[in-house]
Amino acid sequence: MSIALEADRLTKTYGAVRALDDFSITIPAGGVFGVLGPNGAGKSTLFRIALGLVRPTSGSASLFGAPAGDIRALRKVGAMIETPRYPAYLTARDTLKMLALESGAKNADIDGWLERVGIAHAADRATSGFSVGMKQRLGLAAAFFTKPELVILDEPTSGMDPAGIQEIRALIVDLAQREGVTVILASHQLDEVKRVCDRVAILSKGKIAAEGAVNALTAGDVRLRITAASPIAQVLAVLGTKGVADGSDAVLADIRREETPALIRSLVEAGVEITEARWREADLEGVYLRTLENSQPPLEGAA
Amino acid sequence: MLADAIAAERFRLLRDRSALFWGFCFAPLVGFLLSVAGDLFLRYVSKRPPPDITAGLIDQVIHVLQNGASTFGALFLMIGAAAVLASDYRWETWRLLTPRNTRQNLLLAKLIVVGEAVFWSLSLTALLSALAVLIGSVIDGRALTFSMFDRNLFDVVGVLAITWLEAMTLAALAACVGVLSRSTMGVVIACLGVRFIQTVLASSLRLMEQGQPSWKLLAIPVFDADLLRATLLDPGQLGAASGSAGVALAALVAWVAVLATGAVFLFRRQDLTKE
Q1: Residue in A with minimal Cα distance to B109
Q2: Do residues A240 and A227 lie in contact, with contact meaning Cβ atoms separated by under 8 Å?
Q3: For position A190, what pLDDT does the model report?
Q4: Which of A34, A120, A260, B36 is the most buried (most CB within 10 A)?
Q5: Taking the CB of residue B23, how many other CB atoms lie within 10 A of it?
Q6: Could you tell me which of A49, A56, A14, A65 has the C-alpha nearest to residue A152?
Q7: Residue B74 to chain A, least CA–CA distance (Å)
Q8: Which residues contact A170 (CB under 8 A, 6 or more apart)?
Q9: Among the ranges A36-45, B45-54, B192-201, which has the highest mean pLDDT value?
């Protein structure tokens, strides 16, 4: 199995801030790999190190076996890091022409890609007048148009309308499945990640909090959702550490299925008026939030 | 690879009309317009009789070229150089470029393209100053000769080359300052300041010294360029100082090489966290 991106005990500090903390990951070539995490989790830093934009404080990273920043490996990579910016005086077509010249990609299909990302109509307009969504689309064209083997995308659909998001999502899946491009995707849109990615890693405070196939990660997150006419605090008191409020009027119980009758009995005996109890299917959002919750250090003074 | 970076940078500068105009065309155009306007003023407004002197075409071109990298000329050249060398920090576009070529090539390409633009700017200066002399002679009715001091086109090329090298010491400095300050304004201000200080220092030291210039003077690019131009045009007047021309040339080349290498060294080590 060939490896697209590998990080080995990577640490990056910015002053007192530790963006990556002894971080290791291996992302195989092929498919779409999702990188999740709250702002400041270290996603962009990981990408910037891989692309040679910043140097790690310690540890190492490699792309296709070559050290991060090696231009031979980088020429196999397309990337869009954070909100793309362009020289304001260049048109969309000129921006891609300039990047093609820089890469030595003389036969790059510039017009084809402008068409494919849906901004062919604005090809000769200066990018200074582009909306955020159009800039994102141009950034995607810039990432893909030199036919890379690996594409790193940081929030590729941010600022796009729902139709645009769907369009770009289809494009990413198409490139990964039909053209064999490896895609590493960071996004806060968990629904998008679930639809597009085969595997994900959840980052928290510069470390990996969870990693695995999307199906495997979500399979373990099936919980009993209990709604009651009684106060939530009363339900939580019975459940103890196994219960958590789900943000609405219900409580999620983290128990095994065979424990259900005993739990219901305990609740009834405690005087809880249960109105509904059903097993909730897992979703990536639940896994994500729970993983982050578990990865937080306990508050000072807490038991 | 370096050729790719140069082609990309050249393509980009040709699209950046603002940098092209203000940085590399404005000063030659202003010089031309002021010269013609001055002749028109003398002829039609002040109505003085035309001075009874012959205008030397080549002499005037050389005179204008000698001042091509003066503080006024440097101001505009540095505006252009800053746009090329430091605008990727301003536009936050290094993240688009650095994965496509080596950092060394990216920065050297910028410096080479600045060098090309400075060359064309000085050539435009020469061309327009020649045109101004021709127009001036028509307006004033002055006699026109090729050169009154037996100078030829090789002298023009020589002065252009020396002034270009002088300007390139500032361009290489601009590359260093651009990387360190990540600011186009920082480049312009720092380079102008250095240019001004050089002029003051060179004049002051020259007043205090006799005969062969000291190493302190030879370490000042402005002095080196003046010495080289004087050696080329009027070696007889220099006396003992003309023997230092070789050192002056080496000093100019060394400044460009050291500053360019420093800029590349700094850029290769720089974290592009947020450009």
Answers
A1: A102
A2: no
A3: 81
A4: A34
A5: 26
A6: A49
A7: 24
A8: none
A9: B192-201
Kindly write down the DSSP assignment for every residue of chain A, as one continuous string: --EEEEEEEEEEEETTEEEEEEEEEEEESSSEEEEE--TTSSHHHHHHHHTTSS--SEEEEEETTEETT-HHHHTTEEEE-SS----TTSBHHHHHHHHHHHHT-TT--HHHHHHHTT-GGGTTSBGGG--HHHHHHHHHHHHHTT--SEEEEESTTTT--HHHHHHHHHHHHHHHHHS--EEEEE-S-HHHHHHH-SEEEEEETTEEEEEEEHHHHHHT--EEEEEESS-HHHHHHHHGGGEEE-SSSEEEE---GGGHHHHHHHHHHTT--EEEEEEEPP-HHHHHHHHHHHHSPPPTT--
CA B64, B68, B72 angle in degrees (round to 5)?
Answer: 110
Q: How many residues does chain A have?
A: 303
- Using one digit for the tens of pLDDT, what is the confidence trace for A98-146? 999 998 888 888 999 999 988 999 999 999 999 888 899 999 999 999 8
ipTM of the complex: 0.86
Domain edges within chain B = 1-274
**A3 - beta bridge partners?**
A28
CA distance A224 to chain B (A): 44
For A73, the closest chain B residue by CA position comes to B99
Of B4, B271, B272, the CB nearest to A102: B4
